[in-house]
Design a protein that fits this description.
Aspartate Aminotransferase, domain 1, Aspartate Aminotransferase, domain 2, 2 domains, 8-stranded mixed beta sheet, 6-stranded mixed beta sheet
């Protein structure tokens, strides 16, 4: 059976396919697997309890339950949730947005597939435009999301060493160039995989560049404020008429509900709605219906700030302490942990590739993600891409600690063998 060019492109090996396959295998393996690879959030009891209470409230109201599971939403997404979110953004930030500025998708991965292919690829005038990633490494799920080939161009970061084992990436504005071939600028904040939070100044400069070239700035805010607020430094969201802000309910604790949120200009929202209708008729409503009450009351903000944020901040600090204890005097650096629930490790002059380190660790039941997958659009040779790995610290403490011990032993062995 022969597939089309589209079929061949989207069934070939990819980083995001490997990541999700590892996640599925790990869940099937149960307690035997040390899953430090995928992006599954932790199970936070207080959050789960509130979600269960909201579900119970819905079940007590037959009409609401019937609507949640028995009716299609509009292609733009659950009306009540969108209206509640617009009011929250108006109250919290003073943004001049209405429900016409908001669309839902079946997960933020779907949202970015739509957005990338709206603003990159072949255009009616014959030109071919790309998505500019101003700071690589970037999210692994972007890499294969273009219908056309070669839709990304990325910029190497500036690297600042903060202490003997901590570093931070910055956007290198001295070398950042926006040409007529750029259809949009895209950044994640906090950044997946590094936990980097771009400063307000960096985001403002990127927004100004986008405005100057009449292109959108796509801000991936899956871990950011106002929810789930997994940020450990100041990271208030920024939105302008040129900005498309993408959020999610996954990291709030609802990954299975597959609810992506796009806040942007009405013409972009209309385009997302049209794509929803063609691809899936309408986005699912369960996640939106489940949290609508929390959005209306504003409790989603306090739950994020007072429960979710400190939960992950504690786990981040604990994991970094274990890494320092286990890796000791090896030439390792951890990116400054400013948000999300990943640590980005750089093993300077690592004698093996990140892919080989991934393979060796997988043989021992430890799943991480090799770093070379996180540089879409950066075609140049750069050894740094092969010296980094991403690990998820959201799992139980005993799992994370044991995983770090195995990683440290394998890395120490690699340096010793040269």
């Amino acid at each position: 059976m022969e597939f089309s060019r589209f079929g061949r492109k989207f069934t070939q090996e990819s980083g995001i396919l490997q990541l999700m396959a590892d996640l599925g295998e790990g869940l099937a393996a149960g307690e035997d697997a040390i899953m430090l690879g995928g992006g599954n959030p932790a199970t936070i009891p207080q959050v789960q309890e509130r979600l269960a209470q909201e579900m119970a409230r819905i079940l007590e109201q037959p009409a609401r339950f019937r609507q949640m599971v028995g009716d299609y939403s509009s292609p733009q997404g659950h009306d009540g949730f969108r209206e509640a979110l617009a009011r929250l953004l108006q109250r919290e930030y003073g943004w001049p947005v209405t429900s016409d500025h908001i669309a839902l998708t079946n997960g933020s991965q779907t949202a970015f597939f739509f957005l990338f292919n709206l603003f990159a690829g072949e255009f009616p005038d014959g030109s071919h435009r790309k998505i500019l990633l101003p700071l690589a490494p970037e999210y692994i799920g972007y890499a294969d999301a273009g219908v056309d080939e070669d839709i990304f161009v990325a910029q190497r970061p500036e690297i600042e060493l903060l202490d003997e084992h901590t570093f931070k990436y910055h956007v290198d504005f001295h070398h950042l160039t926006v040409t007529d071939q750029i259809g949009a600028i895209c950044v994640s904040r906090p950044t997946n995989p590094t936990g980097n939070v771009l400063s307000r100044e960096e985001v403002t400069r990127l927004a100004q560049l986008a405005a100057q070239h009449h292109i959108p700035l796509l801000l991936d805010n899956a871990y950011g404020t106002p929810f789930p607020a997994i940020t450990f430094v100041d990271a208030e969201p920024i939105w302008t008429e040129q900005t498309v802000l993408c959020m999610s309910l996954s990291k709030l604790g609802l990954p299975a509900a597959r609810t992506g949120i796009v806040v942007g200009p009405p013409e972009v929202i209309q385009a997302i709605s049209a794509l929803n209708a063609i691809v899936s008729l309408a986005p699912g409503s369960m996640g939106a219906a489940l949290v609508q009450g929390l959005v209306e009351s504003g409790e989603i903000l306090s739950l994020s700030r007072e429960v979710i944020r400190p939960f992950y901040q504690h786990k981040s600090r604990q994991a970094i302490q274990w890494l320092r204890e286990e890796l000791g005097d090896l030439p390792f650096f951890v990116h400054s942990s400013e948000g999300a629930f990943f640590l980005w490790l750089w093993f300077r002059d690592l004698p093996i590739t990140s892919g080989e380190l991934y393979r060796r660790l997988k043989e021992q039941g430890v799943i991480i993600v090799p770093g070379h997958y996180f540089f879409p659009g950066l075609a140049e040779e750069w050894r740094h891409k092969q010296e980094c790995i991403r690990l998820n610290f959201a799992q139980e403490e005993r799992v994370v600690r044991r995983g770090i011990q195995i990683i440290a032993a394998e890395v120490r062995r690699a340096y010793a063998q040269g």
